[in-house]
Amino acid sequence: MIEAIAAHRPIVALESTLISHGLPYPQNVAVARASEAAIRAAGATPATVAIHAGRILIGLDDGALEALATAPAGTVFKAARPSLAVALTAGGWAATTVSATMIAADAAGIRVFATGGIGGVHRGAFGASATLDVSSDLEELARTPVAVVCAGPKAILDLPLTLEYLETRGVPVVAIGQDEVPGFYATSSGVPAPHIAADISEAARIVAAHLELELGSGILLCVAVPQAAALPQAETKAAVEHAIADAQAGGIHGPALTPWLLARIAELTDGASVRANTALIENDARVAGLLAVALAPDPRAGQPRP
Ligand code: PSU
Ligand code: MN
């Protein structure tokens, strides 16, 4: 890893909360390995980020991936920007969310990061009896210059408000190869993309230009879930609404809410959401690998390869 960083080889950071909190075993460890393989096949080096015994690890070996994936429920801490110091002090395993992974990637000089879906503005965050539940992922995108590849904000969120928030905070949102924001489990969300790149090479030119401007912010690239694993938009909507109503009835809130909703949607869709989620994560990793290769050697120092 250190050699890859020093040689400015293309590297893609991967987060670990989707392993510990986002997906059941054994699909979680399978998708973690498949994502790393997809990044290698694209010609880049994967760096899965997690926290163990007071240290931020950038690049996990297979044993560490397995340990994170098989840890009993509740024993892995979910580390985001506001909880990073506690995660480091507590010892043991912590998984990094998008915000914590972006912090680690930036500190290591890694410019490209792949995840499944980012956190965002939860439904009910504003308005009557507002929860103010807005993921720290959005603030991180506003302040940390890393390109994040995802399949759209997670379907459990308020997508229009999430896009408004990102626009206000100066984060470009670019859909690759389609004119709607991908709908996470579904290929489309019905919401027009703020910006569109025809393909990965155009996306790489936009990322290079954005990072070269040194605005301080990150950039969000959205790629649709592969068609074969996608859920129909109507099925996604029904399962999400059902799960959110159940969460409200059960008083679930705070950092526990997102993992709880993902697990409930998996039950409601009889596992179809897990198949979509793993397929989109692996696809995001592949696209991020190609993007990192297109950006090499260093988006801050040079132009992307033609
Ligand atoms: N993408 C997935 N599954 C996940 C997540 C993303 O496909 O579990 C995680 C990411 O780590 C993201 C986090 O940062 O969910 C958001 O949590 P919250 O809404 O509590 O900020
Ligand atoms: Mn939250």
How does this structure look, described?
By secondary structure, the protein is of the alpha/beta class. It has a single domain (2-298), classed as 3-Layer(aba) Sandwich (Indigoidine synthase fold), CATH 3.40.1790.10. It is 45% helix and 13% strand. The protein is built from twelve helices and ten strands. The protein has helices at 2-6, 17-22, 27-41, 62-70, 84-90, 98-108, 136-143, 159-168, 200-212, 233-250, 257-268, 272-295, and strands at 11-14, 45-52, 55-58, 77-79, 93-96, 112-114, 147-150, 173-176, 195-197, 219-222. Strands 1, 2, 3, 4, 5, 6, 7, 8, 9 and 10 form a ten-stranded mixed sheet that branches. Strand 4 (77-79), helix 5 and strand 5 (93-96) form a beta-alpha-beta unit. Helix 6 (98-108) packs parallel to helix 7 (136-143) and helix 10 crosses helix 11. The two termini are 26 Å apart. The model has no long low-confidence stretch (mean pLDDT 94).
How would you state the average pLDDT, rounded?
A: 94
Residue share in β-strands: 5-15%
CATH level 1 class label: Alpha Beta
CATH architecture: 3-Layer(aba) Sandwich
Question: What hetero molecules are bound to the protein chains?
Answer: pseudouridine-5'-monophosphate, manganese (II) ion
Strand count, sense and barrel status of the largest sheet are:
10 strands, mixed
Q: Can you tell me the number of structural domains? A: 1
Tell me roughly what share of residues is in helical segments: 40-55%
